[in-house]
Amino acid sequence: MKPIVAVVGRPNVGKSTLFNKLAGRRVSIVKDTPGVTRDRIYADASWLDKDYLVVDTGGIEPDTSDILLQSMRSQAQLAIDTADVIIFVTDAKSGMTDADVEVANMLRKSHKPVVVAVNKLDNMLDITAMYEFYSLGLGDPMPISAEQGQGIGDLLDEVVKYFPEKAEGEEESELLKLAVIGKPNVGKSSLINKLLGEDRVIVSDIAGTTRDSIDAVVTNRGRQYLFIDTAGIRRQSRVNEDIERVSVIRAVASVERCDIAIVMIDAETGVTEQDAKIAGLAHEKGKGLVLAVNKWDAIEKDDKTIYKFSRQLDETLSFIPYAEKVFISAKTGLRIDKLFDSIQQTEESQNKRVPTGVLNDVLYEAMSLNQPPSDKGRRLKIYYMTQIGVKPPTFVIFVNDKKLMHYSYTRYIENQIRENFGFSGTPLQFIIRERGVLEERF
To answer: Which residues of 225-262 are buried (b: 16+ CB within 10 A; e: fewer)?
Structure first.
């Protein structure tokens, strides 16, 4: 699992600007108004040879009766609890405030590594404004200007020192890791309890009962699996409880750890755009995907019901046509064995390798049926393709000019590969490479 770096601090000190700089793109909304960042936003980032997950937070106002600010404090506290390292952002222009002192007290109680970043030092030659922040008692402050990108490298050099190192002799669990993700009250905890045969996870009709991720070892047909139960994800506009505002980062962390994500969908409410966003977490990370439509026992059915629902899944989740589908009831145990069949099929697909010769036979046949595209009289030439990795299966396609390799043609080749070799349940990754030129991934 990648280390998690939480960016925290009181409102309007430049956390989102720093987050965007670390993420390498504009992810957080940045406005000169306190409290703009309502919910944490996460992104993959890297420094030198270290990959990590950076988490943006709402600003912390330690003593306030304002409901919104109390909510941001709650989500920041959960970010603190989840993080491996914390960047505490302060403001050189406004100086140290009582709120900074209170935030520092929160961070000190966390017993997590903290790096203090004194932001808005636009003149890095004059850093006298940062000296007062030594009194926070959190080590040497780091001068930065997030807006201008100054001091960021030194800051990250300090941050990565605290990344957890794999202990000598430590090995990853050989158990297949399965993350159960989905909206609140869709039945994730009920599924875990049914598999375990005990009420280990609190189950309630109240959405958002499961607050934390819970690991459980489940045995099926003589094989053990590690199930990761997560707090439910709810659309931002529908969030009322503070704790539910922070469920996304739990799911992201769980997906980071898993081999296969089980996306649970409520059969009674139908598949929604929010389900698509949740499934997208696993798709973007290259994880295996099983769509488990729960509460199927509660649906009035005829001989066409399952086909109608499958069609709805295909339409709303059109970006993951490869996902395995199973219709279950966590309450009664309906088709739980089918769920494990889908898990097994997905695992086999994730680890499948296709010999280069056979792969290129399919490639050349695909090109003969549908000629590669051309632009301004210059036609794309595809020389050959080879598989270079698994989990997810990854292919390199060698071409004369990768600018001519249109996204749609890459998808056409992907469809031909799936038609011939299956790969059900797993995304495929393609690297387009010219000889002697950097690669481009799809």
So the answer is: bbbbbbbbbbeeeebebbbbbbbbbbbbbbbbbbbbbb
